[in-house]
Amino acid sequence: MLQKLQCRECKTSYEPNIAYFCEECFGPLEAIYDFDSIHLTRNEINSRSKNMWRYKELLPLQPQSKIIDLGTGYTTLHKCDNLGKYLGIKELYIKDDTGNPSASFKDRPASVAVSKAIENKAKAVGCVSTGNLAAATAAHAAKAGIPCYIFIPFSIELSKVAQISAYNPQIIKVNGTYDDANRLAAEASFALEWAIVNVNLRPYYVEGSKTLSFEICEQLNWDTPDQVIIPMASGALLCATDRGFNQFNKIGLVNKSKIKISGAQATGCSPIADAFKNKLDDVIPVREPKTIAKSLAIGDPADGPDALKVINNSGGYAESVTDTEIKNAISLLAKTEGIFTEPAGAVTIASLIKLVKAGKIEKDEKIVCFVTGNGLKSPESVKEGIHTIQIAPNLDLLTEKLNKKGEVLNWQ
Ligand SMILES: *Cc1c(COP(=O)(O)O)cnc(C)c1O
Ligand SMILES: [Zn+2]
Fold first, then answer.
1. Contact 174, 184 (CB under 8 A)
2. Are 296 and 346 members of one domain?
3. C-alpha angle with apex 77: 76 to 78, nearest 5 degrees?
């Protein structure tokens, strides 16, 4: 059960209310659990509904609180033999979070944060987003029946804005980058007393993503992987993944051995991967991100320094990949495994390919790649790969167009 919030820097304790930084030193607050009170067994978990709330003792809500749940989590862990063979890896898995209610992993943190806002009787919720968090927050706000304010940079994909609009929040497009939108959202959270899920609810928000690690352990039959490869924007997902494995180990549900935690970014916005490669302790912000992986376009990542520490302490890697490598990886994943991802999800696949080529992956490592968002969120990024023929409904015309192998002769 959640015990309190605590400053990560000076360890001052706080009541678990809507708050996110320490009044003594301005350090970030984090959720602290009373692990002695958590008696969660494999059998107990097994008996519960197959969604992220099956681990509710390890999530930061009060036991009696109402949970805003759209059925998020317990997504498929695919054993990817086709792609594994192509890359020369024996045990490759994909954690496919495209299957969540709003089609990205962001439903996990949004479900926790919006539930926490309701627990604290907030009058409105909101978020600042590169697209996916906006859809997830607006969907959960709709279910909860609470007003919702969305801050997005003006440049995000039309298909994402269309999805967000359908949930009917107030959408504020900001002329600037994600970091500019973030500043405005933080000011609004104070001035207007809105509960912004990744600003003043951030200590709770980041906890939702731990459920990815819990599910992976369960789906590997209560084992841990050797390496996970995670896309990074703010770095929150990567840090949460690490905490998830540690907490499952702490309460005795798995015997964790060493897990390499690796992070992936796009070269057009790779402040964390660059710091890793240059062996820096500080993350130098990118002023103007430029990549098709718009979900990852955060130039000044809030959890960047912590993500860097997690990667280094775990013996993992950070890699960055170009837009062309991302597009090729979208296509490779779809045609080998039948999984269609948006660019952010392909960043992990493209990074895996690079790590294999660099000899940094052992062939018998058990690897889990995160695929975090659905391809339908970003159809622009695959439009060059569209190939069709168009003919009259006539069988002779069809057979004329095919070669002996049954392939279409000339795409139009
Ligand atoms: C937000 C997002 C990420 C990364 O999230 P952070 O926690 O900010 O690092 C990865 N993939 C997708 C699809 C996302 O929307
Ligand atoms: Zn402090």
1. yes
2. yes
3. 100
Residue 6 sits in the same domain as residue 95 = no
Q: pTM for this one?
A: 0.96
Q: What are phi and psi of 30, to 5 degrees?
A: -135, 155
102 lines ligand 1 (CB under 6 A): no
Give the tens place of pLDDT for each residue, 280-308: 999 999 999 999 999 999 999 999 999 99
Best mutation site among 157, 237, 300 for ligand 1 pocket (most ligand atoms within 8 Å of CB) = 237
Q: Kindly report, residue by residue over 99-153, the tens digit of the pLDDT.
A: 999 999 999 999 999 999 999 999 999 999 989 999 999 999 999 999 999 999 9
What domain range includes position 228? 77-101+207-385
| Residue 85, domain CATH | 3.40.50.1100
**Dist CA 137 CA 385 (whole Å):** 32
What's the mean pLDDT in 27-54?
96
Paired tokens of 76 = 């498929």
> Ligand 1 center to residue 409 CA distance, Å?
40
In whole angstroms, what is the distance from residue 292 CA to residue 285 CA? 18
Q: Which of ligand 1's atoms lies nearest the C-alpha of 373?
A: 13
232 Cβ inside 6 Å of ligand 1: yes
Whether residue 3 is found in the same domain as residue 96: no
- Structural domains of the chain, count: 2
**Whether residue 92 sits in one domain with residue 1:** no
412 pLDDT above the threshold of 80: no
